């Protein structure tokens, strides 16, 4: 087992390593190096950087096997580094850029202040995350790409691993741009769908569903889930929604869903479920981001979700591991037959 000092100093070094990774992502180094190796002066010219400063970053990136020397003062892209190409199928470039975005970077750096008074330093400076993104189109674009890429394995897992009722109507609450709903409908050709989200999102969602050839099976409805959600659905999906809100707000959302759903309907919650032990888990890392960025946002354990659902007259049922740290929680009305 590593000595505790090694763990601590490793965590300290991780800040420098991530900063080099962020520089690689921001400057698009992987895209520039994709055709072949370049000397650092030419690479600096292509990405608009200061050559002596870039050389120092390349040295750090080489130590992480993201680039490798290919001659005197020349570097090429490694297989690991290729994951930062914009066109890579599993590209992590937008994810890295999003975590280094000004507001996110500030939020994590100010976590001690947030912990001191329990109120997000990010919110104090930037307001609610989605308001901040609305004011900053470039950040919003990065966030959308980050969320889309993060959702791909979860969305595919949802469509393949959950047995949807063959002729159900699914209401995707806060369904965003419509990618999850489209995937589910393609996998279940007799289902219909309703995408429900704020008005400024619904135009984009309608375009996505139309481009997927689903306009005849999917409806887009604008509204506020704190007021009400579309009634009469058989399945209500809440994907990465409840973790943005404190317990009281989460219960309000769930109660509105419970009131709207058919008597034999079900709620599907796609979120990280925290383990009950102290073992490392991706959800614990994400939970600190939620603490830093939202007032009241949190990842929760199975028991905590069961408690929220109970307050909304819903009963927790099956919990399916979906990979990538996430789980699918199924809930039904507490008075449902069987």
TrEMBL record:
One term of GO molecular function: O-methyltransferase activity
Cited Pfam families: Dimerisation (PF08100), Methyltransf_2 (PF00891)
Domain O-methyltransferase dimerisation: 17-84
Protein keywords: Methyltransferase, S-adenosyl-L-methionine, Transferase
Residues forming the catalytic site: 243
GO biological process: methylation
Transmembrane segments: none
Classification via InterPro entries: COMT-like (IPR016461), COMT_C (IPR001077), COMT_dimerisation (IPR012967), SAM-dependent_MTases_sf (IPR029063), WH-like_DNA-bd_sf (IPR036388), WH_DNA-bd_sf (IPR036390)
Domain O-methyltransferase C-terminal: 111-312
Tagged with keyword Transmembrane: no
Domain of life according to the entry: Bacteria
The protein, known as: Hydroxyneurosporene methyltransferase
């Amino acid at each position: 087992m590593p000595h505790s000092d090694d763990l601590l100093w490793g965590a300290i070094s991780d800040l420098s390593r991530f900063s080099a990774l962020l520089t690689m992502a921001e400057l698009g180094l992987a895209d520039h190096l994709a055709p072949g190796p370049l000397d650092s002066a030419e690479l600096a010219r292509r990405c608009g950087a200061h050559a002596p400063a870039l050389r120092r970053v390349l040295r750090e990136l080489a130590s992480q096997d993201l680039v490798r020397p290919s001659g005197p003062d020349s570097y090429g892209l490694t297989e690991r580094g290729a994951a930062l190409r914009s066109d890579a199928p599993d590209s992590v470039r937008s994810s890295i850029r999003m975590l280094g975005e000004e507001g996110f970077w500030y939020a994590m750096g100010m976590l001690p202040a947030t912990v001191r008074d329990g109120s997000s330093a990010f919110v104090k400076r930037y307001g609610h995350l989605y308001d901040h993104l609305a004011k900053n189109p470039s950040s919003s674009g990065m966030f959308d790409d980050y969320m889309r890429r993060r959702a791909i394995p979860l969305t595919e897992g949802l469509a393949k691993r959950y047995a949807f009722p063959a002729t159900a109507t699914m209401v995707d609450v806060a369904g965003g741009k419509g990618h999850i709903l489209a995937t589910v409908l393609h996998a279940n050709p007799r289902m219909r769908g309703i995408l429900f989200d704020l008005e400024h999102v619904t135009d984009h969602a309608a375009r996505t569903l139309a481009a997927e050839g689903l306009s005849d099976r999917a409806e887009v409805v604008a509204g506020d889930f704190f007021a009400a959600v579309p009634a009469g659905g058989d399945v209500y999906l809440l994907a990465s929604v409840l973790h943005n809100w404190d317990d009281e707000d989460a219960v309000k959302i769930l109660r509105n869903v419970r009131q709207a759903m058919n008597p034999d309907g079900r709620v599907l919650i796609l979120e990280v479920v925290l383990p009950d032990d102290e073992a490392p888990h991706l959800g614990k890392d994400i939970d600190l981001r939620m603490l830093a960025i939202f007032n009241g946002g949190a990842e929760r354990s199975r028991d905590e979700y069961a408690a929220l659902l109970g307050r909304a007259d819903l009963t927790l049922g099956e919990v399916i591991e979906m990979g990538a740290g996430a789980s699918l929680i199924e809930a039904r009305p507490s008075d449902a037959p069987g």
